[in-house]
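Posting this for the archive.
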Amino acid sequence: MVATDAERPTVHLHIDSFYVWIRTGFGGYARGGYDVLLDGVVGPWALQPFRDAAERDGLDLYYVVLRPSLDVTLARGTARDATELTDVEPLTGMHAAFVGLGELEPHVIDTSEQSVEETADAVRDRAAFAL
Protein backbone atom coordinates (compact mmCIF):
# COMPACT_ATOMS: atom_id res chain seq x y z
CA MET A 1 0.00 0.00 0.00
CA VAL A 2 2.80 2.41 0.84
CA ALA A 3 4.52 1.78 -2.49
CA THR A 4 1.31 1.78 -4.53
CA ASP A 5 0.30 5.24 -3.33
CA ALA A 6 3.81 6.72 -3.47
CA GLU A 7 4.40 10.05 -5.20
CA ARG A 8 7.86 8.97 -6.43
CA PRO A 9 8.97 5.82 -8.28
CA THR A 10 8.96 3.15 -5.57
CA VAL A 11 9.90 -0.52 -5.33
CA HIS A 12 8.28 -2.82 -2.75
CA LEU A 13 10.90 -5.49 -2.12
CA HIS A 14 10.23 -8.41 0.21
CA ILE A 15 13.25 -9.20 2.37
CA ASP A 16 13.30 -12.83 1.20
CA SER A 17 13.56 -11.63 -2.40
CA PHE A 18 16.28 -9.19 -1.42
CA TYR A 19 18.53 -11.88 0.02
CA VAL A 20 17.65 -14.69 -2.41
CA TRP A 21 17.10 -13.15 -5.82
CA ILE A 22 19.46 -10.18 -5.89
CA ARG A 23 23.00 -11.45 -6.29
CA THR A 24 24.93 -8.20 -6.82
CA GLY A 25 24.12 -4.50 -6.83
CA PHE A 26 22.02 -4.49 -3.66
CA GLY A 27 21.54 -0.71 -3.80
CA GLY A 28 20.81 -0.55 -7.52
CA TYR A 29 17.17 0.46 -7.22
CA ALA A 30 17.97 3.27 -4.78
CA ARG A 31 20.95 4.49 -6.82
CA GLY A 32 18.66 4.44 -9.87
CA GLY A 33 16.30 6.96 -8.27
CA TYR A 34 13.71 4.60 -6.79
CA ASP A 35 12.52 4.71 -3.22
CA VAL A 36 12.86 1.15 -1.93
CA LEU A 37 10.57 -0.30 0.71
CA LEU A 38 12.29 -3.34 2.15
CA ASP A 39 9.48 -5.38 3.69
CA GLY A 40 10.43 -7.99 6.25
CA VAL A 41 12.19 -8.65 9.52
CA VAL A 42 15.21 -6.40 9.74
CA GLY A 43 16.34 -6.20 13.34
CA PRO A 44 18.85 -3.78 14.80
CA TRP A 45 21.48 -6.50 14.47
CA ALA A 46 21.13 -6.30 10.66
CA LEU A 47 21.12 -2.52 10.16
CA GLN A 48 24.82 -1.71 9.84
CA PRO A 49 25.27 -2.92 6.24
CA PHE A 50 22.27 -0.79 5.21
CA ARG A 51 23.66 2.21 7.08
CA ASP A 52 27.07 1.73 5.46
CA ALA A 53 25.61 1.44 1.96
CA ALA A 54 23.37 4.49 2.43
CA GLU A 55 26.29 6.56 3.69
CA ARG A 56 28.59 5.35 0.91
CA ASP A 57 26.05 6.17 -1.80
CA GLY A 58 24.64 9.37 -0.26
CA LEU A 59 21.17 7.87 0.18
CA ASP A 60 18.57 8.50 2.85
CA LEU A 61 17.76 5.54 5.06
CA TYR A 62 14.55 5.21 7.08
CA TYR A 63 13.74 2.48 9.57
CA VAL A 64 10.24 1.63 10.74
CA VAL A 65 9.30 -1.17 13.13
CA LEU A 66 5.67 -2.25 13.10
CA ARG A 67 5.16 -3.61 16.61
CA PRO A 68 1.65 -4.45 17.77
CA SER A 69 1.14 -5.87 21.25
CA LEU A 70 2.09 -9.51 21.77
CA ASP A 71 -1.59 -10.51 21.93
CA VAL A 72 -2.30 -8.84 18.59
CA THR A 73 0.90 -10.27 17.08
CA LEU A 74 -0.17 -13.78 18.05
CA ALA A 75 -3.76 -13.29 16.88
CA ARG A 76 -2.63 -11.98 13.49
CA GLY A 77 0.22 -14.45 13.12
CA THR A 78 -1.73 -17.59 13.95
CA ALA A 79 -4.56 -16.54 11.62
CA ARG A 80 -2.29 -16.28 8.57
CA ASP A 81 -2.11 -18.68 5.66
CA ALA A 82 -0.24 -21.88 6.52
CA THR A 83 2.57 -20.93 4.10
CA GLU A 84 3.53 -18.12 6.51
CA LEU A 85 4.99 -18.43 9.99
CA THR A 86 2.06 -19.28 12.27
CA ASP A 87 3.64 -21.06 15.25
CA VAL A 88 3.23 -19.28 18.60
CA GLU A 89 6.76 -19.89 19.90
CA PRO A 90 8.70 -18.28 17.03
CA LEU A 91 6.15 -15.46 16.80
CA THR A 92 6.64 -14.77 20.51
CA GLY A 93 10.41 -14.86 20.11
CA MET A 94 10.33 -12.51 17.14
CA HIS A 95 8.12 -10.08 19.04
CA ALA A 96 10.53 -10.18 22.00
CA ALA A 97 13.45 -9.35 19.71
CA PHE A 98 11.84 -6.00 18.91
CA VAL A 99 10.91 -4.96 22.46
CA GLY A 100 13.09 -2.31 24.09
CA LEU A 101 14.98 -1.09 21.03
CA GLY A 102 16.76 1.69 22.91
CA GLU A 103 17.81 4.47 20.56
CA LEU A 104 15.65 2.91 17.82
CA GLU A 105 12.45 3.03 19.89
CA PRO A 106 11.32 6.28 18.16
CA HIS A 107 11.10 4.23 14.94
CA VAL A 108 8.43 1.92 16.40
CA ILE A 109 4.77 2.15 15.42
CA ASP A 110 2.27 0.32 17.62
CA THR A 111 -0.16 -1.05 15.06
CA SER A 112 -2.35 -2.89 17.59
CA GLU A 113 -5.40 -0.73 16.98
CA GLN A 114 -4.66 0.40 13.41
CA SER A 115 -6.26 -0.60 10.14
CA VAL A 116 -4.00 -1.46 7.23
CA GLU A 117 -4.66 2.02 5.78
CA GLU A 118 -3.77 3.72 9.06
CA THR A 119 -0.56 1.73 9.28
CA ALA A 120 0.39 2.67 5.70
CA ASP A 121 -0.20 6.35 6.52
CA ALA A 122 1.88 6.03 9.69
CA VAL A 123 4.75 4.44 7.73
CA ARG A 124 4.66 7.30 5.22
CA ASP A 125 4.70 9.85 8.05
CA ARG A 126 7.51 8.06 9.86
CA ALA A 127 9.74 8.28 6.80
CA ALA A 128 10.68 11.73 8.11
CA PHE A 129 12.92 10.12 10.76
CA ALA A 130 16.11 9.09 8.97
CA LEU A 131 18.65 6.82 10.66
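The mean pLDDT is 89. The longest helix spans residues 116-126.
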